[in-house]
Each structure stands twice: as C-alpha cells, then as structure tokens.
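Reposting from the mailing list since nobody answered there.

I have sequence plus structure tokens for a pair of proteins and want to know whether others read the tokens the same way I do. The first protein:
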Amino acid sequence: MQAIQVTEYVSGPADLRISNLPIPEQSSRQYLIEIHAAATNFFDLLQIRGKYQNQPPFPWISGVEFAGVVLAVPPSQEAAKFAVGDRVFGGTQGAYATHICAEESQLHPVPNGWSFLDAAGLYVTAPTSFAGLVTRANVKASDYVLVHAAAGGVGLAAVQIAKAFGAIVIATAGSPRKLEVAKAFGADHAIDYRVSGWENEVKKLTPKGKGVDIVYDPVGMVEKSLKCTAWNGRIIVVGFAAGQIEKVAMNRVLLKNVSLVGLHWGAYAKEERSVVPQVWDGLYDLIEKKAFRGFSFQDKEYIGLKKLPEALLDLGGRHTWGKVVVKLQRQSDSKI
C-alpha cells in the first residue's frame, strides 16, 4: 500500500513523503478497509512536527479521519456489524494511506446517499458540535446562538445543528467567502470578526440587544464574546484555534450569570461512554431528516496522496472552509 509515513518529525507538510508499505495485518478485532477519502485536521499539522499531546512512536502513519470500503472482517468476531463491501467512515491513527485497520467501535456506516468525500470528515467534527450544543448547552428553539469560525468544519456542523433545533444563528468568520459559506449552510446572520466592534453588531441582532443565549467557540474568543452574551448565557469552549489559551475576566462571568462549559468530545468514550451512541443517534436522525449535510471543501480538489501536503498547507494557511478532504482510489465507484 501507499502511505504518508512519519519516521522523524518534520518542519511542515512540504517535507512529507509517500512510502510503499505492506498492507497492514488485522488483529483479531480489526476490520481491513480500503480508504477512498481521507480528511485533514489542524492537529495533524501539530503531530507531524511533534507538537501534539498524542505522539505515536516512530514510525507511524499520519492522519485520523477516513472513509472507504470494508475488505475483510475481524477474524475472530462472529457477529460483525459490517460486511465485506460495506461503506464505512471512521477515525484511528493512520488515515493518510490506501488501507487501514480499525475496530468496530471506530467505524460508522456511510449515510445513505453520501459520498466518501463528505463522510470522511464526519467522525471528529459532527459529534463535537452535536455534543457541545445539545448535550452540554441544551440548545432549543428560539435560542440565539453565536458560532465562531462558522465556516470551519466544527463551525458548519454547529450552524446546521443549531438551525435544526430551531435556533437563530449568528455566524462569525474572517473573509467574505467564508461568511457566504456560513449563510449557505443556514446561518441567519454573518459578521466579520476582523472588524472592530463586532460584539456590538451581534447584540443589535438580538431582541432588545440582550445578547446571545449560546456562544459556540472553537477559536478562543470567550473574553470578547462575554460582551455580547445574555443573562444566563452559556459559552461552550471547544478549542483554541487562535493558538493561545485565553485569560478571562471572571467578574463578567459572575455579573451576567454566565455558564462557561467545556467540551472534550474525545474523552467521552472513556469518561461517559453512554453518551457516545446518543450523540451519533441524534446526528443520524438529523441526516435522515435532511437537516444535516456534508461540508467538505468544494473550491479545490485534492486527488491522491501526493496532494496531501498541499491540502494540509491550505488548511494551515486558512485558505479553506469546511473539511479539507483528499480523494484516493477507485473514485469512479465511490459516488464522489
């Protein structure tokens, strides 16, 4: 098989190379999958440079999210959920390759009518946004929801989920194209957060200028968002894409009766396992109702592992929206 194998830390995506390796051998609990599309993530950029909190021992294959076709079922599993030929998506280390092994708990069926391209980007972003807005913030109809970085992967997922629950969505983004994308995915209003005073513009869009009920923040904009958060508001801390951990004036949290709520989706499988199927059931329900659709980046194509470094560079340079996904083999059969 071909794969982006990392044998030493690199300075950036341009240093990544394709290796020819044996097809991985299944363990007794693993499926063998032929990958048709692999999605990129910001943490991939950190991991290849040795800057991420989870660093596999050398050598390792980069990438985590993928979609493809089952080639072989677990050798010792009698009641396998998936059969040979099934279309699946999932997440485990080693997605930047033509083949991968994964356990059943790391896989989900590709939704009916979805392409591998869109399904490849679901595993991390979609449940993160659903758990943040539904499980943690209890979003409901008529809530005013402010979604930061709304044209990113978790952002576009959050916009759609909030709208599906009847909320009014105010999106922020940093370019005219990204604002356009956010509105195309359902945002009621879109504001450029590069413009000074954007917080006041947000408040003007809410009844009597009270501010928003929920802030969904994958960037690190809590301090400024407090200025436009309503009494009893909830601020969901999802990540720090801006690159710095904020220091927040806690007196504002007190004075507005605001709840600061963290969301670490990856930890649910260990700390609160029962929530995981609830979240996925909720997402599949929205998909079935046509209230949630794929959000893979469509302005440019990346075909083949040779384009993976370019895809990561574009992602890191913030030149993209949604999920940046690389197409791999047998595209004529993959509905892409």
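The second protein, same order (residues first, tokens after):
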Amino acid sequence: MPSFTSDSFTLASTLLPSFQASLKSFPPSSSSFKVLHTILPPSTLPSSGKRPKTLHVLDSSFNPPTLAHLRIALTALRSNATEPQRLLLLLATQNADKTPKPASFEQRLVMMALFAQDILNEYYTSDWSSTAEDALAVDVGITKKPYFHDKAISIEDSGYYADAKTGEQPQQVHLLGFDSLIRLLDTKYYPPAHTLEPVSALFERHRIRVTKRMEDDDKWGSKAQQDRYWEALAKGDRETEGGQKEWAERIEMVEGEGEAVSSTRVREFAGKSEWGNVEKLVSHSVRGWIESEGLYKANNENN
C-alpha cells in the first residue's frame, strides 16, 4: 500500500475535480495567471498579515515534483527567512518546449499541492525556520504564458500579491536550474528579431536565483563552466544579442545540494513499480499519490 496519510489523500481527492474544472474555465478566460490553491502554515504560528516583500517563483513542468525542486525551494526560503516571503509553485499550461504528457495537468496540480504541504512540513521542522519573521504560505498557480518574462508580467498584472492600499508589489525571485537559465537567455525563443530585449523587463524589476547543476553533469558542464557562463554576461559578451551586463547583478548563482534528480528517472521507476527508488527522488506525499493513482504506468503514458 502507498505510504500516504489519510489527510493527504483527502486533500488530493478533493482538489482533483476542482483543478479539472479550473483547467476547463481558465483557457477561455481573460486571465493569464491564476492562483488555484494555497497551502497555509499551521494555525498556531503568528502571522502579521503583511504582504510578502519577496515572492519566490518556482516554475516547472512538475512531472512530477522532485527532491531537487524541494531543495531549490527550501534553500531559497532559508536564505531569506528574516523578511516576509511567499512561495508560488507555477505551472504553465503552454510550454515553450514540452507537451503535457505523460501526467495530465490536473494530476500535476494535485502533486504540486501535496508537494507544497511537504515543503511547509520540512520548513517548519528545520531549526532555521525559527528565524522567520512571518508565517509562510505556498500557492499553487497556473499561467498561459510560456516564457519567463511574460510569466512575471502576468503575475504582476493579476494584482494578486499587490498591497491593497499602496498597490506595491513584492519583488519576484525566479528559482531556476542552470538549464533554465540557458533557455531564458537563448535568443531562439524570441522571434522575430531573436534578441534578448524581451527579457529586459524581467531584470529591471525582479531577480533570478540559479541553482548550478552538479559537477558531474556532462550536458551542462562543470560548476566552473557554469560560472563562466554568468561571467560572460557580466563582462558584456552578450551585448550584441541584446543582453546587458547589468543583468548579472540580478542573477544569484548558488551551489546545488544533494544528488542530481531527474523527473525522467522518477517516471521510469514508477512505471516499473520500483517504489523504493521513487521514494529516494520525490517527497513523501508525492510518492504516495503517484502510487495510489498509478501515474506513469505504461497504460497511463498518454494521459
């Protein structure tokens, strides 16, 4: 049987039809961003009611959420624990590179909600959470926008995180892996001119926190090679493409923690019912839902 608590199963089962309905109503709507669910911290924790100064945005296909996503989120929250902050788990219903398979969007959103719960559990059982100024909430949201700069604008334009009195918006910190930084600064995604000018608005108002790939990553190079990619931007080597060296000041490069985790590996292990291996790569509640729903089994590959 899946290692899955009854509370988690109840939450997931309740959210699934709600997310299905939202995914039907969202495409024809005028909104390009919407928060579908919020996981709140324990009610015993004090909350000042302040709007967050920092909104961490973890944008991924979440197919499924993995321990790599967990570490990226927790290290960012830990580094900023002394001021009001919030975390947004964001799923794009249109992706620049990927089609929605094998897990359906509604199933991914359920896993994101369970994952948000696991993040809060980890956050509030860690010693450094005691330094937090305010209670932390985690949102699960969707966007129609496939590109990072458009996603940032859609979040702002929604007004969801704006101060009701002043209209002030939190600074967004987009949490990226190094591979996502490469995509962000790849001119092929910005036709017809194919320059980096479209992303300038993102760097004018917000920041990027990049977790470097592990040293033995053959595809993305060593940590030193990844650092040199950032250094090239800082030296102005991308100016002919529309990249500005000042952007480097808005990009924080941080070391990765733990072993590299591949969502592809999770799907492969789940497809073969190797739950011990799945357990090593995803959080507790996510693992339970994958097993209970039979996600990534051969007969579900086209869902």
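Reply #1 (J.P.):
I read it the same way you do. The CA atoms of residues 26 and 102 lie 21 Å apart.
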